[in-house]
């Protein structure tokens, strides 16, 4: 099965700034974690990052036909984007949202999550392990 893993804005500079909030993990580290967990379950991974909201929407549309599940860290667009909500809602495959941090313990503006209201499941606050857990959960869902 093919799992699409999408990462939103500023995750490309993860590990280069703000270690207090997100630790020293890099996007490359997250990709390695995801690929290793997916391989444990015999699944392929398509791992992507963009700072552009519309590109995330376009990539979610690809999952209508080309992928069996989606893991997405929408980053700050989770808190603002109805477009991402609608794109996730349009999918019939499982969509698991991940946030490295526990957004519910942070600033009030991060307590709005338009993706969570359309996603199958949400994992927040587990750091890099949240990405591994998301892939493990997707694998369990795909097993039925
Ligand atoms: O906890 C998460 O995974 C977040 O999605 C990370 C986003 C931020 C992505 C990384 O942004 C950086 C900013 C400066 C330095 C390093 C990363 C944040 O806007 C969300 O509220 C929660």
Automatic annotation (TrEMBL):
<feature type="binding site">
    <location>
        <position position="73"/>
    </location>
    <ligand>
        <name>substrate</name>
    </ligand>
</feature>
<keyword id="KW-0456">Lyase</keyword>
<comment type="pathway">
    <text>Metabolic intermediate biosynthesis; chorismate biosynthesis; chorismate from D-erythrose 4-phosphate and phosphoenolpyruvate: step 3/7.</text>
</comment>
<dbReference type="InterPro" id="IPR036441">
    <property type="entry name" value="DHquinase_II_sf"/>
</dbReference>
<feature type="site" description="Transition state stabilizer">
    <location>
        <position position="17"/>
    </location>
</feature>
<dbReference type="GO" id="GO:0003855">
    <property type="term" value="F:3-dehydroquinate dehydratase activity"/>
</dbReference>
<dbReference type="Pfam" id="PF01220">
    <property type="entry name" value="DHquinase_II"/>
</dbReference>
<dbReference type="InterPro" id="IPR001874">
    <property type="entry name" value="DHquinase_II"/>
</dbReference>
<keyword id="KW-0057">Aromatic amino acid biosynthesis</keyword>
<protein>
    <recommendedName>
        <fullName>3-dehydroquinate dehydratase</fullName>
        <ecNumber>4.2.1.10</ecNumber>
    </recommendedName>
</protein>
<feature type="binding site">
    <location>
        <position position="110"/>
    </location>
    <ligand>
        <name>substrate</name>
    </ligand>
</feature>
<feature type="binding site">
    <location>
        <begin position="100"/>
        <end position="101"/>
    </location>
    <ligand>
        <name>substrate</name>
    </ligand>
</feature>
<feature type="active site" description="Proton donor">
    <location>
        <position position="99"/>
    </location>
</feature>
<keyword id="KW-0028">Amino-acid biosynthesis</keyword>
<comment type="function">
    <text>Catalyzes a trans-dehydration via an enolate intermediate.</text>
</comment>
<feature type="binding site">
    <location>
        <position position="79"/>
    </location>
    <ligand>
        <name>substrate</name>
    </ligand>
</feature>
<comment type="subunit">
    <text>Homododecamer.</text>
</comment>
<dbReference type="InterPro" id="IPR018509">
    <property type="entry name" value="DHquinase_II_CS"/>
</dbReference>
<comment type="similarity">
    <text>Belongs to the type-II 3-dehydroquinase family.</text>
</comment>
<feature type="active site" description="Proton acceptor">
    <location>
        <position position="22"/>
    </location>
</feature>
<feature type="binding site">
    <location>
        <position position="86"/>
    </location>
    <ligand>
        <name>substrate</name>
    </ligand>
</feature>
């Amino acid at each position: 099965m093919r799992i699409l893993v999408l990462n939103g804005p500023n995750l490309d500079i993860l590990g280069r700034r703000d270690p207090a909030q997100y630790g020293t993990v890099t996007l490359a580290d997250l990709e390695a974690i995801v690929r290793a967990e997916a391989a444990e379950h015999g699944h392929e991974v398509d791992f992507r990052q963009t700072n552009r909201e519309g590109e995330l929407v376009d990539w979610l549309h690809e999952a209508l036909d080309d992928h069996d599940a989606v893991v997405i860290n929408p980053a700050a667009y989770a808190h603002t984007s109805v477009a991402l909500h609608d794109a996730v809602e349009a999918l019939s495959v499982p969509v698991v949202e991940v946030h490295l941090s526990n957004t519910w313990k942070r600033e009030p503006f991060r307590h709005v999550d338009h993706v969570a209201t359309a996603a199958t499941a949400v994992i927040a606050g587990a750091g890099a392990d949240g990405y591994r857990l998301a892939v493990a959960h997707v694998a369990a869902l795909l097993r039925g």
